[in-house]
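= Paired protein data =
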Amino acid sequence: EGGGLGDGGEGWRGDRLTGGPARAKECRDGLNGATGDKAMVAVHRRTTHRVHYIGIEFGVHGYQPFSAAESYRRGFGDCKDKATLFCTLAETVGETSDIVLTRTRDLGNLSTKLASLSLFNHAIAYLPRSKTFVDGTADYVGLGELPVDDQGADVLLVSRDGTSVRRTIPETAAADNVDDQRLELSFPAAVRGDTD
C-alpha cells in the first residue's frame, strides 16, 4: 500500500536500529528496574530529554538517520534520529515498534499514490501493541499524546520486515483534553472562644 516505499524505508533505516550491548545495558540501568508501561515511559523520557532535537542534515543524512548508538553518544539528533533511537530503546525492554514517515498537518493530506520520501517531512514512532504513535521530538508531550501538527497527519508506517501501510493519525477529541476534578471538602465546626 506504500507503493514499495517500505522496501526503501527498510534500507533507509537498515542497520540504524542498533544500540549495541553497552547502550542497551545503559538504557536498562537507567530504567531503575521499571517494566511494562513504566519502562516505556522511561524510554520515552530518555529519548526526549537525553537526546536534544537538533537537525544536521547534510548529504545522505538528509534522509537516512544516524545509528541509535551514534545519536545517543552525541546527545542530539533530528526527528528520524530520535524515532530510530526510541525504537531501539523500546526493543531493549521487549517492545516492538515501527518507524513512521509523517506528513505534518500544515502540508495537507496526501492526494497521490506516488511513493517518495519527499512527500514526508517528519518521522515519529509507532507501538503496535498499544496502537500508540510517539513523537520523540516533543519534549513536553507525554507518552500517548501527540503535538497538534502530528494529529490528523497522513503517515506511512514502515515495519522492520520492509512492509508499509498508509494511515492517518487520529485527532484527539476535546474530551481528551479536559481535566475534571471534583473535590468534597468538610470543615470542622467553628471554634468559639475569647481572646485577650
Q: What stands out?
A: The CA atoms of residues 91 and 97 lie 7 Å apart.
